[in-house]
C-alpha cells in the first residue's frame, strides 16, 4: 500500500464538483478507482474503500485537461504538485544545510492523473479546479516573508513604470484597487448618514423643548 494514503471521511463543505468512478495515478502508477472531490479547501480523492489522499491548492502548480493520447491513452485531468509523495522521497535523501540552497530551483514534483470514466466531465472538473485555486492565491507567500515583500515592491515599481497601461492584477491587488473606490463611496455615505443623524437629533431637541414648554 502507498504510505500517504489515509482513511478519512469525504469532504462535506464547499464541494464544487464530485466525480465518481475516477482512476487516480501517481507518477504513472494506478492507485485504483474512486471519487474525486474538488472542494474549496482542498482536492481529495477517495478510493471506494474509503482510503485516499488530499492535495492543498497552494501546492498545486499546474492543472490541465490532457487530451494527448500519446502521453496517456485516456483523456484526464493532469495535476502537478510541488511536494514529495511516497517513494519519491526515499530516492533522494537531502541532508540539512548547504544542499538546501542548491536545491531551491529543483523543487520536488509529483504528477497525478485523474481519469474519469465519463470524459465529458473533464471541462466541469477543470472549471471547478480553477474556481477553487482562485480562492488560494499566491502560493509563494509560504516560502519566505522577505521574498514576498520583495515581490510586492517589484509589482509596485512595475505599475509605476507602466503608468496607465492596463496591467494584470493578482486577486489581492485587484481587491485593493476596488477598495480605494469602495472607500470613497463609503466615506460619502458616512457623511450623508452623519448629516441626517444630526438633523434628526436637532428635531428631537426641538420637540423636547416644545414638550417641556407645554408641560410648564
From TrEMBL:
Listed Gene3D superfamilies: Pleckstrin-homology domain (PH domain)/Phosphotyrosine-binding domain (PTB)
Keyword hit for Nucleus: yes
Keyword Nucleus: yes
GO terms, biological process: cell volume homeostasis; chloride transport; mRNA cis splicing, via spliceosome; spliceosomal snRNP assembly
Keywords, comma-separated and alphabetical: Cytoplasm, Cytoskeleton, mRNA processing, mRNA splicing, Nucleus
GO cellular component terms, semicolon-separated: cytoskeleton; cytosol; methylosome; pICln-Sm protein complex; plasma membrane; spliceosomal complex
Top-level taxon: Eukaryota
Primary location group: cytoplasm
Cell compartments where the protein resides: Cytoplasm, Cytoskeleton; Cytoplasm, Cytosol; Nucleus
PANTHER family in alphabetical order: CHLORIDE CONDUCTANCE REGULATORY PROTEIN ICLN (PTHR21399), METHYLOSOME SUBUNIT PICLN (PTHR21399:SF0)
Annotated family: Belongs to the pICln (TC 1.A.47) family.
Role: Involved in both the assembly of spliceosomal snRNPs and the methylation of Sm proteins. Chaperone that regulates the assembly of spliceosomal U1, U2, U4 and U5 small nuclear ribonucleoproteins (snRNPs), the building blocks of the spliceosome, and thereby plays an important role in the splicing of cellular pre-mRNAs. Most spliceosomal snRNPs contain a common set of Sm proteins SNRPB, SNRPD1, SNRPD2, SNRPD3, SNRPE, SNRPF and SNRPG that assemble in a heptameric protein ring on the Sm site of the small nuclear RNA to form the core snRNP (Sm core).
Protein name: Methylosome subunit pICln
Organism: Toxostoma redivivum
Lineage: Eukaryota, Metazoa, Chordata, Craniata, Vertebrata
